[in-house]
Amino acid sequence: MQFGIFTVGDVTPDPTTGRAPTERERIKAMVAVALKAEEVGLDVFATGEHHNPPFVPSSPTTMLGYIAARTEKLILSTSTTLITTNDPVKIAEDFAMLQHLADGRVDLMLGRGNTGPVYPWFGQDIRQGINLAIENYALLRRLWREDVVDWEGKFRTPLQGFTSTPRPLDGVPPFVWHGSIRSPEIAEQAAYYGDGFFHNNIFWPADHTRRMVELYRTRFAHYGHGAPEQAIVGLGGQVFMRKNSQDAVREFRPYFDNAPVYGHGPSLEDFTDQTPLTVGTPEQVIEKTLSFRGYAGDYQRQLFLVDHAGLPLKTVLEQIDMLGEEVVPVLREEFANGRPADVPEAPTHASLKASEEVAAA
Predict the structure, then answer these.
(1) Exposed/middle/buried for 302, CB within 10 Å: 0-12, 13-18, 19+?
(2) Span 261-318, pLDDT tens digits
(3) Is the bond preceding 276 in cis, omega lying within 30 degrees of 0?
């Protein structure tokens, strides 16, 4: 099972000081978070993609390429690559290039994002969001798997005799996670192709997550990719920790109350009770994260959000230290206990390459 960090890259004033980082400071802080994740033994760093304030990660592959040069083991991913408003040709080429630079330590999560105005900014219609996701991904798959592609669809100009360059490393495309919070069509899409399904459940109660994951697992089996338990599932999480739970609540409350998206909404107590957010001790984080298996089954990837809402970089790095030293080692051991032998490990470039070689033999 893989454990890691995902960032949304928001530039938010620290509510305790009133100071907001500059864009440069925030971008550099995201790099520092990735380097700390590798240092403490986490598996994955994932960045979002946004094209509007208060967010800065408009070019994920640029950032991930820079991080690739400064890390050795960390898997570099996205917590959303906008399949609806990016050109599939550009996605195919950018991530294949990143694969080569990172020696295969690359996968990506496709999604539609949470910002409606991004569609007209890139010449698209939000009312076609699901259709764009379906058509664009169908083209992306072909670009990675076929050396020469002829294509005609609804949402982009036709391609004739087109070859995407560079070709995927070792002839193996990056593994794809389809990310969704609420759209069953995306769970269906992931199941149809036998890809991964990532439910970023940080805003949603357990029962909703359970239904979405069950739908994906059922349809994964329907399409002949294996038993429901063999489907590839990832989940989000959100934590803030201190040695004493009261200290954690007191310190995190002003950040929660002013956070982008959910700030000035539900109380910290209600949100903690109803979603995966854990504010407390490392032991409480372990207990709540282990409970995810009760409604999602044995899964493959767990990503935590720790660096948003104006939290100082020093505090964020302390959170990652606690994850690496106190939380993740216990989670690795506990999630391994009782895990059925036929539940697959999280895909990596090496495992995908081995599978391709077996299939070709």
Answers:
(1) buried
(2) 787 889 999 999 999 999 999 999 999 999 999 999 999 999 999 999 999 999 999 9
(3) no
Helix, strand, or coil here: 238?
A: strand
Q: Which of 174, 168, 163 is nearest to 108 (CA)?
A: 174
pLDDT at 220 over 80: yes
From CA 82, how far away is CA 45, in angstroms rounded?
Answer: 18
In a 13 Å sphere around the CA of 42, the CA atoms on its Cβ side amount to 29
- 252 Cβ contact list (under 8 Å, min separation 6): 240, 268, 279
Both tokens of residue 52?
């509007």
Phi, psi of 126 (to 5 degrees): -60, -25
* Cβ atoms 261, 222 nearer than 8 A: no
Q: How far apart are CA 79 and CA 49, in angstroms?
A: 8
Residues 6 or more apart in contact with residue 358 via CB below 8 angstroms: none
With b meaning 16 or more CB within 10 Å and e meaning fewer, what string describes 271-296?
bbeebbbbbbbbebbbebbeebeebb
Phi and psi of 22, rounded to 5°? Answer: -70, 165
Q: Which residues contact 140 (CB under 8 A, 6 or more apart)?
A: 83, 88, 91, 92
